[in-house]
Amino acid sequence: MTAAGPATTVSWAVLALPLAALLGLFVGSFLNVVVYRAPLGLSVVAPRSYCPTCDRQLAWWENLPVVSWLALRGRCHGCHEPISARYPLVEATTAGVFVLVTWTWHGNVLSIGYCTLAATALTVALVEYGGRRAPLGVGALGGTLGAVFVAGGAAWLGRWTVLGWSLGGAGAGALVLGMLRTRDPEAGDPRGHGRTLLPSAGCWLGGLGLAGALAGAATWLAVTFLCLVGLWTVHRRSDAGDDPAVGPRLPAIVAVPLVTSVLACMAVSLVVGT
Predict the structure, then answer these.
(1) 3-state SS string over 22-41?
(2) This prediction's pTM
(3) Which tens digits make up the pLDDT trace of 254-264?
């Protein structure tokens, strides 16, 4: 080791992490638009952001991530109706995730692909946890872009193992997604909700090496098991008449086990595999 090592680490961190945080804030703002509009079949690019209560288009200064919500004290500037705290929370969470991904990948170009996959997972999860079905296009587009960026970054760095396994993982995830769509085209089984995340999860795990993939797979199985036990317990109590109101109070992270297990496995595998 030489004295240049820590200095080099500090230099890339000082540049990359604030940039990742800033980018994450604006991506999170866009994710809020996608989460609201995509399930309704609305365009995510036009018209510009507007208040869903008074339909007034927002000025640029009302669209600044987190800052605008704080400056407006959580209320619309026009009609003064409350603005959900979900918006700044999504923006801040996305920024935090981008910083974590960038840190674990040491600020190299693979961070771009993994941030894209993370943003896709967050989008699908937010839609599904909100009680709606995530359109196929959301997961497909995000997963495809993420795979392209991961592959391009791996090729740029000459990391051919990451390139091969990430594309193989994405292909395996797409294959499983196709099988699930064949068996349950309308996604009637809640255990399959969020299945559009499978290609993204496959690409994510494939690029993290054996240790990361195994840790992610183990986490996936454990979290899925716990969620299914929770579902079974709640339904059994409801059927027995112990508490008919338990069903509607079922936490979203349990009600959509595939989404929860994918998020958990992605987080664990990233820490273990990089």
Answers:
(1) HHHHHHHHHHHHHHHHHHHC
(2) 0.89
(3) 889 999 999 99
